[in-house]
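Below: protein 1.
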Amino acid sequence: MVKIKNLFEAGVHFGHTEGTLDNRMKQYLYGNRLGHLIIDLNHTKRLLQQALNVTAHISYRGGVILFLCQSPLNCLTVENCAIECGEFAHTRYWRDGMFTNSSRIFKSETRLPDLCIVLNTLSSTSKNNSGQHSVLSDAAKMLIPTIAIVDTDANPNIVTYPIPGNDDTPSAINLYCDLFKNVILKAKKIRKEILDKNKTLL
């Protein structure tokens, strides 16, 4: 399903400049060109396939999936992706404690997601010193697994299933969204077929 050719054409291999490198991302690098870091797409393909497999299993079991993105350039793409596959999206400012303190914030019992897919790990509006999207720490505290696109300037260790890749370019975000949307729709279709078959046997 995941092809290196498609990843390359979407610009997934383009990282940030050398001076912004998070040392924990060194293991996923291929090298650098003209001062810009290049991500090894072999790592991206392997970890993306793993993340898609996890997503498919959670969707097949009827789990709730939340897409997150705070990049104004890509918010609409992410929102449309969630709508098209019948899931949820949050593309605005993330208020700390929305998972850990959800009943107080929403004034009622809240169904938390079974999986969070974060399309940009770093957030310009984050209040924590690391600059990471606050949902990552919130989800970790509530034992909610996370999948995140991790660029060369981010920390992959706080993500359950990190995917090294470009998290800025619209073509890359479109590719990620299409891949996740397709596996979710396929998993839901199989789940529906099995449930319908079981009903006819009753």
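Below: protein 2.
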Amino acid sequence: MNNIGVRFKRTFFFYWIAKLSTTSFMRIFYRVRVKGKENFPEKGAFIMVSNHQSFLDPMLAVMYTWRVLFFLARDTLFKGLFGQLLLKLNTRPVKRGESDLKAMRTMIDILQRGYGTCIYPEGTRTPDGRISEIKPGFLLLARKTKAPVIPFVIEGLHEIWPKTQSKPNLSGRVMVEIGEPVPYEKIQEQGAENFAKWLTDKLRQMQNDARVELGKEPFDYERLS
């Protein structure tokens, strides 16, 4: 396997410290509800596909599973001490807006080692809370590793820390919905384009379910079709 530049024991030490700290932060300031925690596999690789509402999204991704997760973040964040910190927290750089084969190879290597990954295929934070169309490029990871895909939806963080704010609000309600793993065989059966469309619809449905749980009006995604 390729060397992914990780000293796992040291990396995992920082990861668990960060997990405990961020979990405490989220529980102190926000009211978070979750559905579907049982859908995380107990072992083996998986690809968690999430909508992207704010910089706080990864905190919620790690809160509800004891499994170690790896992330991708845009390469411009990997500068100086902050960049070193991101690497220690299981985050790897990716060039946004273009095909980054090096980042893909890194994540494939991680999946082949049996770890979970969390990706945000929208590419950037939502400007209005809605989920944009999921592109099929990330399915290269599934094709190369045969890992299942887990739909993961966050609702509420856009209001807490929208793209237009430099700092988060320190109160708010959040809903997390974790879908059932989709085995690679089903993805292969549907084909990449059809599965990406199905996944977009699934994430939007989960988000609207979460919005109703929080007492919000569901988004009218039919207008975007």
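Residues 8-29 form the longest helix (22 residues).
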